[in-house]
């Protein structure tokens, strides 16, 4: 954009100098040419610098064409109803919402303190990227659905190979019918995940649906075997670069393999790109990036999930709305793909309520209003423009100050062992700001800022809280991380703070209770029903 402005300004300079020359007849034509030549060299230099910038500095935002809802047959009032309803959900913090129709963004919101440029960990949304990579490998004859899983790992098999292990196929991993009973703690206690998985007792493959992130991990390992590159690098080459998704990372296991079932880290608009690619049956800007027949298989029912949903494809979920499928991650990341409406809806959040409620809001508040003919924008469109740029997550309510603040200022508060890895903290109190200085057990120290009736943001070098405790977690994920904080005194002796890790997912609620010389601190993470007591009782 800078370079475009400079190129445009060259034309302005040329016109301005030419006009002055005509009027004053004193400007040397040769001098004008010298100035223009210098300008061209400056533009060229800036273009080169832009190309040399690291990919992570160029956020993939606003790359979709934007349109008015009415131009695409959607009344703005229905979008307002959807967004208002999502924001009103209990025990839920909405991070982003994007609604696309006919490949164009017709509405989007990023409630403060979130923003479109922030990346987000996508948990099990990662599985759908794995499914895409497997399809690409199959299309290149590197892999087949009927290939036996054991054949890829001859040096990591148990001493005795059971008939069920011998029968397990790539297809069984894709549709979650491997026969392996999920062991969600295995990744937390050992580093040889492939050997651990293949060493499990195995029921008859293909008979029973068992959702398991380690099945996706094994697929990631297989893709790495047959392509000679990590799954992320393979997707970069085949999908991400053509789609201009460069601001993306993926966690890496202790075995040097992308984690597969979780760990993708990218922006909401990049998740929307995946949704649009699948809606278009693998077509992107006129190029068939992913085979159309493979996309059809991914989005078709490949497993009966019983009471656990409406069926499962190849690393995708079928929805209750006819024909709709979704990309789905824990705590709330969704890309809803709705072919009969030619729509994609992306939602990211931190929530402990199941996604059924969120999806029903899309089915019931939005889709019935979608039509085939363009509409005329009215007052609702103006309301939508205003509302979607002004949504904000609630700040902590209470008073700005307490008479106890001075007594506890800068007093070290020591912790017993805890999941956060915090050793101690100190609080500083200012008229409308609280500064929390955290010292971790590894000695790292940093400040978190909390504003009164507003969000204050801090950049930290520490890793954020993470519900996944796998060995080597965060490997492959780069910082810094940003934290937005709000505080208030709910009583003279009770200080409450809320922290959002805005380019991750986690949210922390702190409740300090000051009693004489004692401090009691309880922390609740991600709306969990359990408090982590860092000190006191």
In DSSP terms (H or I, runs of 4 or more residues), the helix count works out at: 15
The biggest beta sheet reads:
10 strands, mixed
Return Rg in Å: 27 Å
Number of strands: 21
Q: In whole angstroms, how far apart are the ends?
A: 56 Å
Instruction: Specify the structural class.
Output: alpha+beta
Q: Give the amount of beta strand, in percent.
A: 15-25%
Helical content stands at 25-40%
Describe this structure in words.
The protein is 30% helix and 23% strand. The protein is an alpha+beta fold and 537 residues long. α1 runs antiparallel to α2. The chain starts with a helix and ends with a strand.
Short structural summary:
The chain is of the alpha+beta class and 537 residues long. The chain is 30% helix and 23% strand.
List keywords for this structure.
30% helix, disordered N terminus, 6-stranded antiparallel β-sheet, 21 strands, alpha+beta, 23% strand, globular
């Amino acid at each position: 954009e800078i370079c475009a402005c400079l190129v445009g300004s060259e034309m302005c300079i040329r016109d301005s100098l030419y006009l002055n020359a005509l009027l004053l007849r004193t400007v040397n034509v040769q001098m004008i040419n010298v100035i223009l030549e210098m300008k061209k060299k400056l533009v060229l230099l800036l273009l080169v610098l832009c190309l040399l910038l690291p990919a992570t500095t160029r956020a993939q935002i606003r790359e979709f064409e934007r349109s008015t809802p009415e131009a695409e047959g959607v009344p703005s009032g229905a979008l307002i109803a959807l967004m208002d309803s999502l924001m009103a959900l209990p025990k839920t913090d909405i991070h982003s919402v994007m609604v696309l129709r006919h490949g164009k963004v017709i509405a989007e919101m990023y409630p403060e303190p979130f923003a479109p440029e922030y990346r987000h960990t996508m948990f099990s949304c990662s599985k759908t990227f794995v499914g895409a990579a497997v399809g690409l490998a199959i299309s290149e004859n590197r892999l087949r659905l009927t290939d036996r899983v054991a054949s890829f790992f001859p040096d990591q098999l148990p001493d005795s190979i059971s008939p069920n292990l011998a029968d397990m196929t790539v297809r069984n991993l894709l549709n979650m019918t491997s026969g392996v009973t999920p062991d969600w703690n295995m990744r937390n206690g050992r580093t040889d995940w492939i050997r651990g998985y293949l060493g499990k007792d195995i029921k008859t493959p293909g008979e029973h649906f068992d959702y398991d992130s380690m099945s996706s991990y094994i697929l990631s390992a297989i893709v790495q075997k047959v392509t000679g590159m990590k799954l992320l690098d393979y997707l970069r080459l085949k999908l991400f670069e053509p789609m201009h998704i460069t601001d993306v990372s993926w966690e890496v296991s202790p075995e040097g393999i992308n984690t597969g079932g979780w760990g993708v880290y990218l922006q909401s608009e990049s998740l929307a790109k995946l949704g649009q690619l699948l809606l278009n049956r693998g077509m992107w800007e006129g190029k068939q990036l992913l085979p159309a027949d493979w996309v059809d298989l991914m989005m078709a029912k490949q497993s009966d999930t019983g009471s656990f949903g409406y069926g499962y494809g190849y690393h995708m979920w079928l929805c209750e709305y006819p024909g709709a499928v979704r990309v789905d991650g824990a705590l709330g990341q969704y890309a809803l793909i709705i072919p009969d409406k030619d729509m994609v809806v992306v939602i990211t959040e931190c929530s402990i309520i199941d996604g059924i409620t969120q999806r029903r809001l899309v089915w019931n508040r939005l889709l019935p209003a979608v039509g085939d003919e363009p509409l005329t924008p009215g007052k609702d469109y103006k309301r939508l423009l205003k509302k979607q740029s002004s949504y904000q997550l609630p700040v902590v309510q209470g008073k700005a100050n307490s008479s106890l603040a001075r007594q506890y200022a800068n007093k070290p508060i020591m912790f017993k062992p805890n999941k956060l890895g915090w050793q101690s903290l100190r609080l500083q109190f200012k008229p409308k700001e609280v500064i929390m200085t955290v010292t971790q057990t590894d000695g790292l120290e940093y400040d978190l800022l909390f504003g009164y009736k507003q969000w204050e943001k801090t950049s930290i070098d520490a890793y954020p809280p993470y519900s996944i405790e796998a060995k080597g977690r965060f490997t492959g994920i780069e910082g810094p991380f940003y934290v937005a904080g709000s505080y208030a005194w709910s009583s003279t002796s009770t200080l409450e703070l809320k922290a959002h890790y805005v380019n991750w997912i986690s949210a922390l609620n702190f409740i300090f209770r000051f009693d004489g010389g004692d401090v009691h601190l309880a922390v609740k993470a991600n709306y969990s029903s359990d408090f982590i007591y860092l000190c006191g009782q």
